[in-house]
Amino acid sequence: MFFKRINKIHLKELVFDILWAILILIAASLVADDARKYSDMDSYAAGAFFGFASLVIYIVDGCYRFLLWTRRDRNNQQQQASSPAY
Question: Residue 86 has what DSSP assignment?
Answer without folding.
Answer: -
